[in-house]
Amino acid sequence: MNRGLRLSAEDLRPMDNVAPGISGLRILLVNVYGITAPGGSWVLVDAGLPFADERIRHWARITRGAAAPACIVLTHGHFDHAGAVLELAGEWDVPVYAHRLEMPYLTGQSSYPPPDPEVGGGMMSLLAPLYPKKPVDLGDRVRELPGDHSVPGLPGWRWIHTPGHTAGHISLFRDEDRVLVAGDAVITTKQESAFAVATQRPELHGPPAYFTSDWDAARASVRELAALSPRVIAAGHGLPVAGEEAEVSLRSLAQHFDEWARPSAGRYARQPAVTGPRGVVSLPPARARKAMPVILGAAALGVAWYAWSRRRAS
Question: Rounded to two decimals, what is the model's pTM?
Fold first, then answer.
């Protein structure tokens, strides 16, 4: 059904002041975050779209001066979250941390399970087969996150394994003030809709449907995050939100996940992709591509929308 829980404007947080020590940058359709540690060093969370490295470095110079981050932490390795990671890690000469189950997709071993364009009901879903699919290869720059759930370079933060969208997806949480950097475990816009992405209307949703390959795991992850009662939610897509309404909405989403977030049909709706330490193991059968003519038409619209978004961003 992919129902969104509407959030009021009072709950929104500006990207330049998400919470103490946290700022964000929106790059067309995805967010990256910079988190400052008590000693003044900082960590970049996610790396945006391909070719976004120059813009991220420019933002980092403005917000954090000349200092490179201590490291880059990836919530997962999809193209819109790790698109510029190779260039940024090389330019800054810093390590990249991710969950061990993301390693196949960050060392060139495996592509992710194929997207499902038939779920979500929007142009961004229809365009999903056209998105970059090849894994990035970070070589020896990528490292597994510590087994004690600490976040390198960020005392007071912990990482939480939140699979479903991908097998090795993680979120970050600061217990002191209950700030959640959610990645794509939950998002605050209807990412399947190009209109919603452009307008950023605040709504709480489950993970982007077209790239989610294990809905049982995604439901468990949302329930785990809801149990934390976060006061601030900074997601990979959509504006950061805060306050009691956001907290209550997340609990409601966790309680009604199957009705509101899980698609009623689709390749992974009832049977997940099976993945392991080396990547994809097995996939449910592909559904017939009845939507291909629509996909091709949506592709043309997508190119036009992308060009418009680039002009607007500049």
Answer: 0.91
